[in-house]
Each structure stands twice: as structure tokens, then as C-alpha cells.
Amino acid sequence: MTEKEFMEEDYRKRMEEHHRKMEIRREKRRQQRNFHIFLGILIPALLILTFVGLRFALPYMEEHNLLSFGKKTGPSWEKEVEPLSSGSDITINQGPEESTEEPLSEKEEALQAAELCAKQYDYDKAIETLQALDSTGDSSISDKIAEYEAEKEKLVPADMDQITHIFFHILITDTDRALKDTRQGRQYNSVMTTIPEFKEIIKEMYERGYVMVHMHDIAEMQEQADGTKKMVKKQILLPEGKKPFVMSEDDVNYYIYMQGSGFADKMVLDEDGKPKLQYTDKDGNVSVGDYDIVPILDEFVEEHPDFAYHGHKAILAFTGYNGVLGYRTDETFDPNSSALDPKNKANPNIEEDKATVKKITQVLKDDGYEFASHSWGHINFTNRSLEDIKRDTDRWKRNVEPLLPDSCDILLYPFGADIGDWHPYKKGGENGKYDLLEEAGFRYFCNVDSTQIWMQYGDQFLRQGRRNIDGYRLYESYSGKADRVSDLFDVKKVFDTRRPTPISWED
Ligand SMILES: [Zn+2]
User: 409 C-alpha vs ligand 1 centroid, how far in Å?
Assistant: First the structure.
């Protein structure tokens, strides 16, 4: 091999080697590229799978109490939310498994029931309950009946033209969050009442001889000899010195805009089937307890049964636009309805929620509450046209009334804005608004009036003025500006001094 040949051969070999290395590098790059494409598909796919998995697993885990975010703390009178399923390792002490108490006999049960009726001035029912027993020759029963008859004799008729009516909104649980120095906070400060205030008010009123009655105890529609129906004034019998009054609570809807502002979230039934409130504190801990009027009043009446005439408690008034009792039951939240409002978050559990609300309103009725319309859209009946009122009333009757145990005949005007002035309503009057409301079944109408008592009996209706017992009214009296509450309670004992002052009217 010549030197030249040798160099050519060497060059050829080096070129081959170079090409071989280039080919390996190309192959490596091809493999890398394929790997990246593979990763590019795999990673998003894994992310999607994880997301979908969690989406379904998290609610399941939450529901089965497999997650525990944050420790639940709170005052000892709060009851914690109970886990919903057996998947939890929390055990709740429900007392001894076997009751050592003997079940009550029929007689003992009747005696207890009769005693409660008697304490609530329903002597007729007390006597009826005992007479229903087969007690021939049982002198303890006949003695008791005689005792109730004698007690009943001592009752005197209340003045049916002197019945005051007070009202509240839902109560403030957390004053720090509710009463901020914002327009909303100042508004809450003027139109709301705090829990300690409410507790002191009912205590004071009880001590002064006030007894809660229903509007249906004052007057009711009765059939006349000619077959027509007429509103007839009734008689309330109480011991000397006792005074009937009506209490109502407006907007028991637990509105969306109020969530997180220191008020209850919604009404629920606890493990004993009693109406309580679910509440979320500032740290996000959820508990069930006495965070509004219903359970506070229930407990008070349990201790003082004679505060509730025949067991009758407050009127609860509902609007419709945010659903009822904290459940988004309105058609404007219904994902399957053409009425769904795009501004609302659709409620996929709407049917379940409606069933829950129906169950709760039945419990409330049995517990002594009655219900009122506060209009669907919290409208002003004075200013709105007849057409507006008709549309609103239809919506209320379509969305709220079916959730109540019975049809509703009480209307508590939002803002107290009545369809008319002090003149009695008459057919064809009030620009047709009265006929419309009568046609819709309303017979009890309440405006807002700061005087102690305003009542008007008509042929087909009963009207009452209601007194707002709220921050504004309490401060007005507390600061000595005007006293419109001293017939009910001593404001010095009631006023919650945690309130920022002065309190001006904000609505
Ligand atoms: Zn209202």
C-alpha cells in the first residue's frame, strides 16, 4: 500500500467512524423525542385522572368523615355537627344503652300531657285529655279534672284590642363579624338584634306577665249561619295580670349575602329531631346549636311553659328569592328549570333540599310556630304596581307555600309598607291590591308601627302594627333619645354594649 493509498484508506475509515457516531447520536435524539412526546401525553392524562378521581373521592371522604380539617372548638353549649355515616371512628355518648326507667303508663302519660296543657292555659284540652282515659272510680283523675276546672274559672278575658306585636330579624351570633364599620355593618347594627339581647328581652317580658299568642288566637275566619265566612274576634283567657302579645321573625331565609357575616347558615334538625341552627364560626368550624330565635325560644318555653299560650310561639316569615330556611329551594336555583337565574349558583340537590325544608316546617308547626309570607322578592307593597304584586305573589305561592304544612294566610309587609293607610281595607280598594291579596288567601296583614298597639278588625281581615325591636330602637331608648320599649323590658338590662354606637337608622 502506497502512502497515498494508506492515507485514503485511513480517511475512509475515519469518515465511516464519524458517520457511525452521527447515526448513534441521531438514534438517541429520536428516542429522546419519542420519550418527550410520550411524556407530553402521559402527564396531562395523569393530571386529568387525578383531578377526576379527587373530584369524586373528596366529597365521598368528606361525607364519610375521612378528612379532618381543623379542630372544632366552641363554647360548651354548642353541639358539634354529627358525622353522617358509620364510616367514622368518632363515637358519641348516647347514654346507657338500656334505660332503667320504666315506661310511663297510659295514665301517667295523660297526666303529664294534661299538666303541660294546663300550664299553657289550655284547661279545656287538659280536661279532655283526662276525660279520654278510662278512669271510672279513679279519684285521682276526677280530682285533677276538678282542679283544672277551678283554675279555668279564675281566668279573665284579655283585652282583645290591646295586643302588642313585636318583631325581630334573624339574630346576630358574632358581633365582631356582623357589626363592622361598613354600610352593611351599620345596617345590621340598626335592624338586627343580638342573641344576648333576645334572651334578656324574653326573660324580662316573661317576668312582666307577657304571654305569647298566635294571630289566629286573636281572630279567625268562621263560617256564618248563611254559609259565608267572617273574621271573628276570639277570646283569650289568662290569669289576672297576664298580657298576650304576638312575636314574629322576618326573613328567616339565611340569605346568601349574609353568609360569613356572623349569622347562622341554615336551620337543621338535630339528632333528637329538634330544630337548631348550623353556624360557621370565623375560623370555618361548623357547629349546630342555638344560633337563632327558634331554639332559644324553645328552650325558654321548656323551662317556662306558661310563656306560650296553648304552646303557641312566634310567626316565622319567609321571602322566596333565596329559598327558605337557608336552603336554595327557589326555582331560580333549579338547574332543570327554565326559571334558573344565570346569576345564581344552580343547586343540584334542590329536590332533596325541598324535602328537608318541608320536614322542618312540619316540625316547626308541631312545635308551636306559624308561618307568614314576607313576599317573594321583599317588595314594597305601597309603591309597586298591581301587576308587580301579582307576579310576586304568584312566585311566592309557587315556590314557598308548597314547602309549608298548610296554606298561608298571614302577610307581613316588607319594610312595613302597607297597601293602604289606616282606613280599613275594602273590596275594590287600594287600587285592586286588597282584592288580589284576599284572592290569594291572605287574611292577616301587618305593617310596621312604633306605637305600642295598632289593631284593626275587618269583616275579612285582621290588621296589626308591628314594633321593630332592633339595634336602632334599643339604642334610641338606651341613649335616652326616645323610649318606645319600657312597657316591654328595661333597656339597660337588654342593650348589648358590644355594639358600636351611636346607632343611626340605616336601611
Ligand atoms: Zn324583611
Answer: 17
CA 200 – CA 198 distance, rounded (Å): 5
Q: What is the CA(375)–ligand 1 centre distance, in A? A: 9
Domain extent for 272: 157-494
Which of 239, 265, 230, 344 is closest to 81 using CA atoms?
265
Distance, CA 145 to ligand 1 centroid (Å)? 45
Going from the Cα of 251 to the center of ligand 1, the distance in angstroms, rounded, reads 5
Do 43 and 111 fall within a single domain? no
- For residue 29, give the 3-state DSSP assignment: helix
Q: Write the Ramachandran bin of 293: left for phi over 0, alpha for psi from -120 to 50, otherwise beta.
A: alpha
User: Do 285 and 73 meet the contact criterion of CB atoms below 8 Å apart?
Assistant: yes
Residue 172, φ and ψ in degrees, nearest 5 = -80, 125
Residues β-bridged to residue 223: 229
What type of residue sits at position 391?
Answer: R
Q: What is the pLDDT of residues 371-430, one digit of tens each?
A: 999 999 999 999 999 999 999 999 999 999 999 999 999 999 999 999 999 999 999 989
**Ligand 1 centre distance from Cα of residue 185 (Å):** 16
Contact 217, 244 (CB under 8 A): yes
Residue whose cell numbers read 312575636: 247
Confidence of residue 136 (pLDDT cuts 50, 70, 90): confident
- What is the C-alpha separation between 162 and 233, in angstroms, rounded? 13
- Tell me the mean pLDDT in the region 33-57: 59
**What mean pLDDT is predicted for residues 173-188?**
97
Clarify whether residues 405 and 432 are in a common domain.
yes
User: Residue 507: inside a domain, yes or no?
Assistant: no
Residues 446 and 458 in one domain: yes
From the number of C-beta atoms within 10 Å of its C-beta (0-12, 13-18, 19+), residue 155 rates as: middle
Q: Which of the four pLDDT bands, split at 50, 70 and 90, describes residue 71?
A: very low
- Contact predicate 182/176, CB 8 Å: no
Query: Model pTM?
Result: 0.80
For ligand 1, the distance from its centroid to the CA atom of residue 330, given in whole angstroms, is 17
> Is residue 502 reached through a cis peptide bond, with omega within 30 degrees of 0 on the bond before it?
yes
- Closest of 450, 472, 484, 416 to residue 190, by C-alpha: 472
Instruction: Please indicate, yes or no, whether residues 184 and 215 belong to a single structural domain of this protein.
Output: yes
Give every CB contact of residue 125 below 8 A, 6+ residues apart in sequence: 114, 117, 310
pLDDT in tens, 437-486: 999 999 999 999 888 999 999 999 999 999 999 999 999 999 999 999 99
Expressed in angstroms and rounded, the spacing between residue 175 Cα and the centre of ligand 1 is 20
How much distance in Å is there from the Cα of 299 to the middle of ligand 1? 25
Average pLDDT along the chain: 87
